Amino acid sequence: MAIVMIVAHRVFLLEICIFYIFSSGVESLPCVHPIVWSPLLQEHEVTENPENVNIPQINLNSSMPLIEADIAVELDRNAIGNESYFWKLPIPYILGDGLGLNAKAIILQTFEHFRLKTCIDFKPYDGDDAFLHLQKLDGCWSFIGRIGGGQNLSIGERCDSAAVVQHELLHALGFFHEHSRSDRDDYITIHWEAMEPDAKHNFIKKNVEKDTFNTPYDYFSIMHYPPWFFSNDKNKPTISTNILHFQKLIGQTYDMSDNDIAKLNHLYNCTSSLALLDQCTFETLNICGMIQQTVNDQQWIHAFGGNIQGDHTLTHTNQNFGHYMLLNTSFGREGHVAVLESRYFHPKRKEQCLEFSFKMNGGPQDRLAIWMIMYEEDDAEQKAENVGVITGKEVKLEIWHLAHFQLQSNTKRFRYAFQGMLGETGAVKDGGIAFDNIILTETSCPMAVWHVHNFSSLLFSLLPNDKVISPCFIGHDGYGFGLVLKPHGGKVKGYTSIFFQLCSTKDDGKLIWPAINQQVLITVLDQTPDVLLRRSFSRSFVTKIDELHSGKPNTSAWHQPSMAGSYHQHCDCFRGPGYGWTKFISHVYLRRYKLIRNGDIFISIDFQDVSNLHQTERPIGSSST
User: Fold this and answer.
1) Percent of the chain whose pLDDT exceeds 90
2) Distance set, CA 209 to CA 75, 213, 312 (Å)
3) Residue 600 pLDDT
4) DSSP letter assigned to residue 568
5) Catalytic residues
6) What is the pLDDT of residue 379?
7) Domains detected in the chain
8) pTM (2 decimals)?
9) Nearest to 336 by CA among 370, 300, 360, 282
10) What are phi and psi of 202, to 5 degrees?
11) Quick one: what percent of the chain has pLDDT higher than 70?
12) Would you state the torsion angle of the CA atoms of residues 571, 573, 577, 578, taken in this order, to the nearest 10 degrees?
């Protein structure tokens, strides 16, 4: 570990940061020791995508008649038990031009989130009789259920977060708040004396027995009020949980809970995810229907424990070992291979993301190659395409890494395949290549993923404002970027800070500057093996033309890093000003979910041009046909 004292803080380069797994088309620039960090680094607080949005406070001045803070008034409407209020899928929508670019991108990403977790689908408006019209009006609010015609859903000022969009969409899909369900008195107490008389209507209990869907009361629901909504005294909550332990848990503003998803799937008769094609932890004997192709007498073994020291599925539990696929590279001849193919998949989209965990503890020349095999309808092999290769010399041994590979299917059917190849025979006694926890979705892969090793130790050992610096990555459009991570944010205890920077690359002269109208999306990945149970945490902003370098007048913060930034020896590159959040994520949330696993965290970074979303409004009544 290299440590450099700069002014009043320290900067760290972790040895593990030399290697990162990233999706196809993204490169990592060299990470050279020791680090030198310029004191000219500037950190700018992003106002977009705020934390813990107070919807009642935002909606105080809304001209829209609202109940329960954010429900547009169509009294006595409840999709629960009334099929006429259900939407026919897919749900048509229009994104109003008044929405900001970040809000539009978040809405589209939330649609993808619903497709992954449920069977709820959305489509652009095409002259449909009923549709959602998402607009930037005065506040964050929605009607309950389908009301017919063009149905407004407001994502107003300070409402541009994934949690708020999810919350308002769930209202539009038919749900009231969790605190108003018919059995709530068994779980929470409403303190009527702690609110003004004109606020009491926001806490009226619904008298509909079907509103529970036979699911437990959900303290973790994204539809639950926090304890202090509508309180007339900051020291007196309006809601308290009957079991004290849950008092700090109600009112989370991060992601839909398991029961939120279960209720939605029940209401719309969902039996499967729209976007999930496959996931496998190899804990069953049939190894998820994968097919062994024997070549050179080498085979993938359905392993249990062994020298790879534990599978990736169970390492977060009290069990020491589990199952994974293993190729022993300590015997055999150099160049010999073993191939494991998936079953057939019939894609609905042209883009898929293959995610898996892997470990390599053999020789530096051992290779793990990912293939995509595409077929026409007559079963004739159409094309075998090498998607990417990982070699032993690129990875930190003895730890599990995370890989994402973007697949592009242009045929009716395809398989993916893992090909292990032996390097120098016997380079490491009992060495091998292992992989586990496969997830195949019809989504885009993250553009880059930063593996922060021993993050738990950093939380324990680092001081406020100590920084950990990522390597630089290169995105699909050629822009270089990286992160600065402060495990302890400094200003407020209990939070981790993250700031995004542009990095210079050899191709900067070919790019368009300043790099504006790009969405920066930063996600701390939930490492739960079951993708349907994950609660990853994301925040985002869009780069703007009026964001200037505070130390260089008339210079855009998003200009070429060699002009707007400072030189950094560790990457032999220039890095621009930092934009992000001092309170990016709380330590409570990091620990409550599977965001930290085996002491590590994975942070994905996307830098995506969203200028195509400037004009999304469509004339009402128009059709493309």
Assistant:
1) 61
2) 18, 8, 42
3) 93
4) E
5) 168
6) 65
7) 2-37+447-613 (2.60.210.10), 51-275 (3.40.390.10), 276-441 (2.60.120.200)
8) 0.90
9) 300
10) -75, -10
11) 85
12) -20
